[in-house]
Amino acid sequence: MRITCRPDNLVVEASPLHTVLENLLNAGVRHAHACGGNAACSTCRIMILEGSEHCRSMTPAEKKLAERLDLPVHIRLACQTRITGDVTLQRLVLDREDVEVAQHQLRAQSMGSQVSAAILSASLRGMATFDEDNFPYDIVYTLGRYFTQMGALVQRYQGVLASHSGFKSLALFGLKNPQNPQDAVQQALQTGLALLESVANLNTTLRELSYPEVSLTLGIHYGPTILLNIDPQDPQRVSAFGKSVNFATWLESANGELSSQLLISAPVYRAVKEQLSQVQAHPVKPSPNAKTIQVYAVDPRQANLLPKEDSVTGSPLATTQPTGWLETLREWLRAWSRF
Ligand code: FES
C-alpha cells in the first residue's frame, strides 16, 4: 500500500504495522512530531485527502486530543493513525512557524472553531472632524471614554470583544451559553441600545464644550461565526470571521443609506420582535446581484429593553452629570487655552 504525500509529491511504500508517522519517517520525510509520537502535541497532524476509508479508527489518545482541539474528522494525527490501503494526505505542519502555531492552538485548547453567535458591529463616526479641528487630547479622552464604556457594557451583557480596528468594533454574544440564541440576541441588542445611550450622553458633554458631536452606527446579526484565538498568552482573545460577521458589518454600514442608527437582520428581529415596539422594515439588496432581503431599523429610544440600572435615569454609564472625566477634560482645555 502507498501513502501519497503532499505538498512533497512523494509516494511512500507503507506498512500496516506502522503508523503513518513511522512510515513517513522511515521513508526519509522530515515530518514534525514534537512530542515524539505520544498524541500530546498535534504537530504531526495531517489532512486526509483521499482514502479516509483506509484509515483505522482513532486511538483513545488521538480521540482525546482531537476533542480537545475540536479537530474536524479529516484531520488525523500521523503518530496514531494506521492505514489498511492507499491514502493521499496533506502534511500540515511544515516548518518551525507551523509548529509554534500548533503549540499555541494546544495552549488555547482549540484549532479555531465555528460557533453560532449574535454579532454586534459598531462604528463611531465623526472622529475624523475631531482629528483635524482639535488637538489630540480631545481624541484621547473621547475615545478613552467610549471604549471604556463599550468594554464595560459588553462585559455586563456577557459578550466578548472580538476586535477593534480604528473606530470600528466587533463584539460577540452567546459564546458562554451557545444553547440559548434568544439570550444572545437580547444581550447584543441591550448592549447596542446602552451604547447608543451612552454616546448620546457623550454628545451632551461635547456640545457643552462646543465640540463637534460624534455618532454611533450599529448592526446586529445572528449566525455561524468562525473563531480563531489570536493571542498565545490569552486563550480568551479571539478574532471572528465568516459570512455572518461580514453581514453584521454590512448592516452597520447600511445605516448611512437608511438614515438609521441600529439595523438588525431578520433572524435577530424574529428573536426579539415581541419586545420591540418601534421598528421599521426596509427591503434592501446587500450587493447588486443579491436578492432583496428585509432588514429592520430599531428606534434607539427603546430603553424599555434595558435593565433599570442601564436606563437614562439610573445608569452610571449614562449619567449627564459632570464626572471626574469631564472635570479632567475641562482642566486640559483650561490649560491648553493658556498657551
Ligand atoms: S507527534 Fe505529537 S501528537 Fe503526534
Automatic annotation (TrEMBL):
<dbReference type="Pfam" id="PF00211">
    <property type="entry name" value="Guanylate_cyc"/>
</dbReference>
<dbReference type="InterPro" id="IPR001054">
    <property type="entry name" value="A/G_cyclase"/>
</dbReference>
<dbReference type="InterPro" id="IPR029787">
    <property type="entry name" value="Nucleotide_cyclase"/>
</dbReference>
<feature type="domain" description="2Fe-2S ferredoxin-type">
    <location>
        <begin position="1"/>
        <end position="95"/>
    </location>
</feature>
<dbReference type="InterPro" id="IPR036010">
    <property type="entry name" value="2Fe-2S_ferredoxin-like_sf"/>
</dbReference>
<dbReference type="InterPro" id="IPR012675">
    <property type="entry name" value="Beta-grasp_dom_sf"/>
</dbReference>
<protein>
    <submittedName>
        <fullName>Adenylate/guanylate cyclase domain-containing protein</fullName>
    </submittedName>
</protein>
<dbReference type="InterPro" id="IPR001041">
    <property type="entry name" value="2Fe-2S_ferredoxin-type"/>
</dbReference>
<dbReference type="Pfam" id="PF00111">
    <property type="entry name" value="Fer2"/>
</dbReference>
<feature type="domain" description="Guanylate cyclase">
    <location>
        <begin position="118"/>
        <end position="252"/>
    </location>
</feature>
